[in-house]
Amino acid sequence: MNKNSNVFKVDRNTNRINPLKKRRFSDLGFKERDHIQEWLVHQSNALGEDLLIIQKEFDGFDDTRERLDLLALDKAGNLVIIENKLDDSGRDVVWQSLKYTAYVSRLTKAQIVDIYQQYLVTYEGGGSSTDKICEFLEVDDIDEAVLNSGNSQRIMLVAGHFRKEVTATVLWLISRGVRIQCFRITPFSLENDVLLDIDLIIPPPEATDYMIGISSKENEEATVQGVQKERHQIRFNFWSHLLTIFRNKNIELYSNVSPTKDHWINAGSGLSGCPYSLVFGKSESRVELSFSRGDTLWNKSIFDKFYEHKDEIEHAIGKKLEWKRLDDKKSSRIVLAHSFDGFDKNNWSTIVEWMAENILLFQKVLSPYLDKYGQAMKNSHSEDSLNMEEDQME
């Protein structure tokens, strides 16, 4: 949205549009720290991508009392410095953010993990920073995560208005390879409500796509080094070994799957978004049934129906399972795990036998429930309709 554009409300009754009133945050009583900062903390994808907020009001700089508003990780493991201003960017915001970027560029992986752990303890009531970072980056363990590599740091500036000296400096920095973005945030009044428009103004979206593409290439090149290169090769070799044995055993579930460097492979269960997964890690292996459609309510509803039969399912499988509803996530899953030293090739045959036995057992025991509940929910988005369908079946 450019600065001269307006936001309108459509009146269906009169077939007319009415402009919403543009407001100032200060006039509405909003503040940087109490409001804008908290909005971004609790809706971290509001700036156009998934970010993991790892600290707010970060002051861990030597010999200075300065505080950076928000520190985050992006999906490539890069540190993101987020600076928030209210109605005006001021003239020093770029210099301020560059200082913070220089400070955090020296942070090691261990320090980042510790900073996030402090954040979890202080603001989230605890939890494991290592586990959450691994889940966010979709890696098997923290040894594999690449955090704050080289000059990969990014800057996001958020303000109601950017001065020309700020935008000119930002554009110059971008031309010199600095990864910096400006987001203009504008409040509008709608009766008793306030609407918020968040608009990426620098760089324009097409330039952003180019920057992301360059970042992805750099990240891909980085992953062929060191421990990641070794782990990717180990996984590829393991899955090649497993798929060969599965073919020899006439296990058709993964017949259309190719070896991969990822720590997991999926096979269809017959129900979209609910794969049977094999997970191969350094310290454990798992078989899983995931409920991972785009509809969170759907995933939780079908998981809950399976959980109602927990005892009979575990009795049929003959083992205790991990029932991971994952209330703070979109997906849910049913898991059977076993500890193995996966990177010792001498254990691979044992691991493959364990996976073969248990994924077939999963398929045998869980498929009837998928047929029963999955088909009932195929075109449903509510638990009520699932319950209604179940009553009819019974």
Summarize the topology:
Elements: E1 8-11, E2 16-19, E3 21-22, H1 25-28, H2 32-42, E4 52-58, E5 68-73, E6 79-84, H3 93-104, H4 109-123, H5 129-137, E7 154-159, H6 164-175, E8 179-190, E9 193-202, H7 205-222, H8 226-248, E10 264-267, E11 276-280, E12 284-291, H9 296-307, H10 310-317, E13 322-324, E14 332-339, H11 348-376, H12 383-393
Parallel strand pairs: 6-7, 7-8
Antiparallel strand pairs: 1-2, 3-8, 4-5, 5-6, 8-9, 10-11, 11-12, 12-14, 13-14
Helix pairs in contact: 8-11
InterPro entries: DUF4268, tRNA_endonuc-like_dom_sf
Domain DUF4268: 234-369
GO molecular function, one term: nucleic acid binding
Commentary on this structure:
The chain has helices at 25-28, 32-42, 93-104, 109-123, 129-137, 164-175, 205-222, 226-248, 296-307, 310-317, 348-376, 383-393, and strands at residues 8-11, 16-19, 21-22, 52-58, 68-73, 79-84, 154-159, 179-190, 193-202, 264-267, 276-280, 284-291, 322-324, 332-339. A hairpin with a 2-residue loop joins strand 8 and strand 9 (193-202). 42% of the residues lie in helices and 22% in strands. The chain is built from 12 helices and 14 strands. Strands 3, 4, 5, 6, 7, 8 and 9 form a 7-stranded mixed sheet that branches. A 5-stranded antiparallel sheet has the order 10-11-12-14-13. The chain folds into 2 domains: 8-222, Trna Endonuclease, Chain: A, domain 1, CATH 3.40.1350; 227-393. The radius of gyration is 25 Å and the shape is globular. By secondary structure, it is of the alpha+beta class.
